[in-house]
Amino acid sequence: MAGKGKILLSITGFNPQRWYEMLSEEREVVLEPDGAADPSIEYAVVWKQRPGVLAKLPNLKVIFSIGAGVDHVFADPALPDVPIVRAVADNLTQHMVEYVLWRVLDHHRQGQLYRAQQSKKIWHEPPQRPAEDISVGIMGLGNLGRAGANVLNGIGFRVNGWSRRPQEMPGITTFSGDAGLVPFLNATDILVVLLPLTKATQGIINYGLLKELRRRNGLGGAVLVNAGRGRLQRDADIARALDDGTLKEASLDVFEVEPLPKTSPLWAHPKVFVTPHAAATSDPAHLVAPMLRQMDAYERGEALDNIVDREAGY
Ligand code: NDP
Ligand code: OXD
To answer: What is the distance between the alpha carbons of residues 4 and 24, in angstroms, rounded to a whole number?
Structure first.
């Protein structure tokens, strides 16, 4: 460990013990609130770091985000100007693909209806529609969105994708930018949101956007699945859209305020499936080794992978 830059671990909201133990196998780790202004700290590994804590480290070189999303890092108004590396791992992608597949299939195969029928002991078989009649639209064609799009396409759904910059993907109909948004929505029955939270995307999932979704399909209405970030959406607009039929159903993993307040009408809404920001959890067993490898590579003068674009905010 001698000669290797020290790590500050700054985590809010969950127990950092496993991250601490695994990072400590190769480098000295200081668990915040210790380590304030320590000049031997060169790296920070963070989830919702305490605002201002990183700015006090005089020799900080790189910030590693425990999450794929980095809005929690940018929430710090005193963020130092050093590279930010975000979490990318096959295991994280696999979990997100499972979540997306689970929720899309549940809506497609009428899970909500069957659960309601079972609670009343009703034996009734509704018509089955083919996957190829349903268009799933993925907002955000990044690591997670692209993987989800390919798996859904592989089991027969029509898949649309929307991104900031134009992309081409075999088998997927792609749209991009402001000009592509309404055409993308007009061609989408099940909207899956896998966008990062940035200045440009905050509040994008609002009533006006939901109105643009296609609802002339065998599903009996449009469906929303959001596993991106809660502040992409307006919770009240989603409740309104569900109540007036603009949306048929929704699966929500993320919310404007987390944990979802007990007073939220979404908890008990019969058309909503709630999970507690659990679509794809960052696992230190899959993320610590690549972080440590990147620190070693950085010290050899090599380039970092998965660097966040500060201008774009993701
Ligand atoms: P990436 O950075 O790889 O991809 C982001 C995608 O969003 C890109 O396709 C990008 O477009 C697109 N995008 C960004 N801004 C805009 C915009 N203004 N308009 C249109 N498209 C835009 O991210 P990941 O796929 O790795 O992760 C996506 C998000 O998923 C994370 O930011 C995080 O918030 C969330 N997440 C949630 C988890 C959960 O458990 N609920 C777990 C992990 C992640 P372009 O291709 O042009 O750059
Ligand atoms: C992430 C998350 O961004 O867990 O990785 O939400």
So the answer is: 12
